[in-house]
# Entry
Amino acid sequence: MAKKIIIIGTTDTKGEQLIMLRDKIAALGHQPLLMDLSMGGQTRYPADIPPDEVAALSGKTMQEIFAADDRSVITEWMTQGAIAKVQALLAEKSLDGIVAVGGMSIALIGARIMDQLPFGIPKVIGTTAAMPVYVAKLFDANDITVMQLIMEIAGTNDLIQNAISQVAGAICGMAQSCFDHRSLSLPKPAIAITQIGFSDQCAKNVECLLQEKGYSVFPFHAQGISDRAMDKLIGQGFFDGVIEITPAGLIEEKYKGNRAAGFDRLDAAGERGIPQVWALVASI
# Structure
């Protein structure tokens, strides 16, 4: 069965390569939908979702985009429009996978768009700029695959064609092999637990006690990424309760520690209204 795959890029700078990616996805038997986020001017490459449609979803016109001097503001407008469009496609059940290809700007925009999608939807970023300083922003706490393309995405030489073919194969293979994200579930009642090195034994004891009572327990390493991912899964309805043996990510965010997990850490369970227990002594 053909999968609907969204392609994110800018045809004014990477048009030839994006069309190549679209054609390869189609050749593999799937339905590509190219969303063009071009912000620099006219392009000769047609897109299924043109820049003016994306801009309109953020309340802007392309004239306003071209006239604005602040690139960060323009990028924010187009990002918000792209998020709105992708969310609409998701609601219409017209999204089975998503791929972004380009430099750092598109990689970061793509990551923000993908951050708003549920766990389980295939997400791929092909970029020439997967530098260490940006990697955390690209992956964040999401199930995203980042592919380093090594050389600049320009022209159609064999290396570029090979890289584009691999990106197409990656997103198509993931889309046709994964479960429907709407069908994903855990055995109930399911309990999430945070832990880290110094609290492993405590977590194991709690896990054993809960399992004896018929609960399924899923531990998360509270290093600032896995615990945030846990919160996202809680928000998506995957757990019936949570035990915070190591909730220190919030404290580390306050004091800029190396396990900082954001100021919204611990909010998801309360917003869902599921039972939660915090072991605060373990985080001192």
About this structure: The two ends are 52 Å apart (CA to CA). The longest strand covers residues 4-9.
